[in-house]
Amino acid sequence: MTTMTIARVPAANAPFEITEVEIPEPGPGQVRVRVRACGVCHSDSLTVAGAMGNDFPRAPGHEVAGEIDALGEGVTAWRAGQRVGVGWFGGCDFTCDSCRRGDFIACENGLVAGIAYDGGYADYMIAPAEALVGIPDDLSDVDAAPLLCAGVTTFNALRTSVARPGDLVAVLGVGGLGHLGIQYAVKMGFETVAIARGTEKEPLARELGAHHYIDSTSADVAEELTGLGGASVVLATVTVPDAMTPALGGLRPRGQLVVVGASADPMQVPPFALIPGSTAIQGHASGTSKDSEDALRFSVLTGVRPTIETMPLKDAQAAYDKMMAGDARFRMVLTTGD
Questions:
Q1: Strand runs (DSSP E) across 23-158, as ranges?
Q2: What pTM, to 2 d.p., does this model score?
């Protein structure tokens, strides 16, 4: 029996166990991916807690970069040895109403790597062929991994928003999502405003290309944005709803607050904050495998890269704990084969 190393959660909210298991075989329509790097995302906490109904034991990981190791029956669009990734979009049924309309990310029976099946906290993983993302040769595995969730989420949210080149766009939060959102906003031609608490992150925001910086602890965010002409879009990457609401007043008429920072806490939004300017609050899901390919290609073309810290797979617990404590700057990435 040939075995591999896997970092998995044996029960809800239990510590990770690093163990050896048999290398799995791909079934029809599936591929086996040799994992080289896997990002540690805040959404991995959903797996750890079993919040989306996953079975245990389960290995998290939906920011996976590696190459195809084996093809299952019926897989013809991919080849062994090809560099691929797997992001939040981990498969769909192709038969529900959303899929029949081509809206695969909204599939009623959509799969997520690390929840529906073992994810990238392992030497190898099995994934449906439709979940695969081709990785450009000019992008390293450790850089590609975070772009398959944090990257595509912010990239896709901005490109599908109402903002157009030259518009004022604000990115709320300069963290794991926000530091990528700022880069994408600048490269897409938006006049970019970074918003964060305090002045500590201003030098980084400026380095990433932000044209303006607002310290939300010392200035009125709405007034500052209005003084700049009003934002077409505020991309909310933080996970604190109370920090999102003040930005609504800084939207220009028909502007959008686009929410990508996941939280179960309610937003307090008075209707009158939306009605006068016909403004909107829009949630945004990540993106399909093809959207991820677009994000990777755009990143290579424009030089967008995540700021990462790597740890070997055996240190999955330490990497996860550092991410959950908010001490990562800005994305933790696990590497295999160390």
A1: 30-40, 64-71, 83-86, 124-128, 132-134
A2: 0.96
Cα(216)–Cα(134) distance, integer angstroms: 39
Indicate the DSSP class of residue 64: E
Gyration radius (Cα) of the chain, Å: 20
Sheet of strand 212-215: strand arrangement: 212-215, 191-196, 168-172, 231-236, 251-259, 280-283
Q: What is the pLDDT of residues 273-282, one digit of tens each?
A: 999 999 999 9
Q: Cis omega before residue 56 (within 30°)?
A: no
Alpha-carbon distances of 84 from 117, 155, 165, rounded to whole Å: 18, 19, 31
Tokens of 302: 């424009």
* Long-range residue pairs from 137-140, CB within 8 A, at least 24 positions apart, any chain: 137/83, 138/300, 139/296, 139/299, 139/300
Q: Tell me the pLDDT tens digit for each residue of 164-175.
A: 999 999 999 999
Task: Find where tokens 């999502």 sit.
Answer: 177
Tokens of 145: 């991994």
- Spatial distance between the Cα atoms of 115 and 134, rounded to a whole number of angstroms: 22
